[in-house]
């Protein structure tokens, strides 16, 4: 496995691989790898592609009061995990390599980025789409893999790729969870043991919501309110949002039909966790 | 020469050419070709590349009260000229091919697009950078050629390519003029014979400005004011702007030093013409 810090080095290696007839897969990450990331790598490897993983904590997608500075970083640990999973190349640039001078250009997807995490984190998705565009241009992959824990991000990237005609296939990979149900996230390490225990209410409430849905409940509002009640009753978590939205275009849903997802974001202390469940209505 | 209306057809042909070891050059245009466009093709051919010319009147870069509907279009005439100049492929999509559904994504370069033409034409450069990004992703050229009559546009595209790491070399080609000095523009056909005669004041005033500069004048404000005076005295043109700016970053200049350009936009009736001159200060 190769580790590159420089854009030009990545370009050279990718070009060489492509010259040998291999397709290129990109797994963009912010590092501090967990099984969720490694599942993306596993998917990427299925195609026989040369697998590039980017590890870059992108300042552009963090708000001024967010956790950019303390976001966990451990390249040595990540490199071991990535190599074990079959990554061929890690691209781990410094901030100066990605943003050498004042960055004036951004890529933005209207509407889709205004709600849910976009409402709580202004500028976040603009930072994501901008850095992902840069990574797409640097690596020029045939396929790129994104985890569906960030379901809104996944939809936004799909829309961007379609709208701007990126010659790239975007592949969404389902959430990976701990044995007890907590969705994997690099931010889980921020949780105290008590918060870690309380955070299980996210997955539990999504499971309950699925039960209500299976029993015939179709009112989005009713399910949203019942989830909120459950979270409030069974944890000290502070709800950021609980919303049911179309899994195609993120539009608000009143009566559940077609493919929807239930998205939630809850704070435990200063740690904000997200989770979601996709449901297919009749 | 091939004419393609479909993105998939362009992609197939470009892929085939690249497979045969040829590099790809892109000349983006809105059609109604003149010698300026053909000079871009001539430059593109020098590299031995497969030359793709896009002809697309992009609705996204026209304001609601601008000339999108009446912008001149004549594919048959353009195809003859393009073939004569050595274009290999014309990409001439319908609006629905480029914007099949609601387009939610845009690419924007901050600051550089706010002044000059951007101030008079809100959203114009955002439309340009968005469609150029799409064309870059569709054609995936090694080099792209832009006329420097739209000097601000050229700088904005350069900035975008640098900021977003497009794997593309942007080549700016100097203004091509009629024998009497009028900068070539597809919009020149809008001019009445009287306006056409009056419009020569643009090139004349830029020439005078160069003389003042050569004689030692270094105050941007003085030169700007003298150009305005000349245009007002010698034509009925309505001045939109006359400004001296850095040719590197578009910043305002007080004392001329380094590489600058004098940019002007003047309306003759409902026709807005632009012109510029690049000067290298000591």
UniProtKB/TrEMBL annotation, chains A, B:
<keyword id="KW-0547">Nucleotide-binding</keyword>
<dbReference type="InterPro" id="IPR004821">
    <property type="entry name" value="Cyt_trans-like"/>
</dbReference>
<dbReference type="InterPro" id="IPR003721">
    <property type="entry name" value="Pantoate_ligase"/>
</dbReference>
<feature type="binding site">
    <location>
        <begin position="147"/>
        <end position="150"/>
    </location>
    <ligand>
        <name>ATP</name>
    </ligand>
</feature>
<feature type="binding site">
    <location>
        <position position="176"/>
    </location>
    <ligand>
        <name>ATP</name>
    </ligand>
</feature>
<dbReference type="GO" id="GO:0005524">
    <property type="term" value="F:ATP binding"/>
</dbReference>
<feature type="binding site">
    <location>
        <begin position="184"/>
        <end position="187"/>
    </location>
    <ligand>
        <name>ATP</name>
    </ligand>
</feature>
<feature type="binding site">
    <location>
        <position position="153"/>
    </location>
    <ligand>
        <name>(R)-pantoate</name>
    </ligand>
</feature>
<comment type="similarity">
    <text>Belongs to the pantothenate synthetase family.</text>
</comment>
<comment type="pathway">
    <text>Cofactor biosynthesis; (R)-pantothenate biosynthesis; (R)-pantothenate from (R)-pantoate and beta-alanine: step 1/1.</text>
</comment>
<dbReference type="InterPro" id="IPR042176">
    <property type="entry name" value="Pantoate_ligase_C"/>
</dbReference>
<feature type="binding site">
    <location>
        <position position="61"/>
    </location>
    <ligand>
        <name>beta-alanine</name>
    </ligand>
</feature>
<keyword id="KW-0067">ATP-binding</keyword>
<feature type="active site" description="Proton donor">
    <location>
        <position position="37"/>
    </location>
</feature>
<feature type="binding site">
    <location>
        <position position="61"/>
    </location>
    <ligand>
        <name>(R)-pantoate</name>
    </ligand>
</feature>
<comment type="function">
    <text>Catalyzes the condensation of pantoate with beta-alanine in an ATP-dependent reaction via a pantoyl-adenylate intermediate.</text>
</comment>
<protein>
    <recommendedName>
        <fullName>Pantothenate synthetase</fullName>
        <ecNumber>6.3.2.1</ecNumber>
    </recommendedName>
</protein>
<feature type="binding site">
    <location>
        <begin position="30"/>
        <end position="37"/>
    </location>
    <ligand>
        <name>ATP</name>
    </ligand>
</feature>
<dbReference type="GO" id="GO:0015940">
    <property type="term" value="P:pantothenate biosynthetic process"/>
</dbReference>
<comment type="subunit">
    <text>Homodimer.</text>
</comment>
<keyword id="KW-0566">Pantothenate biosynthesis</keyword>
<keyword id="KW-0436">Ligase</keyword>
<dbReference type="InterPro" id="IPR014729">
    <property type="entry name" value="Rossmann-like_a/b/a_fold"/>
</dbReference>
<dbReference type="GO" id="GO:0004592">
    <property type="term" value="F:pantoate-beta-alanine ligase activity"/>
</dbReference>
<dbReference type="GO" id="GO:0005829">
    <property type="term" value="C:cytosol"/>
</dbReference>
<dbReference type="Pfam" id="PF02569">
    <property type="entry name" value="Pantoate_ligase"/>
</dbReference>
<keyword id="KW-0963">Cytoplasm</keyword>
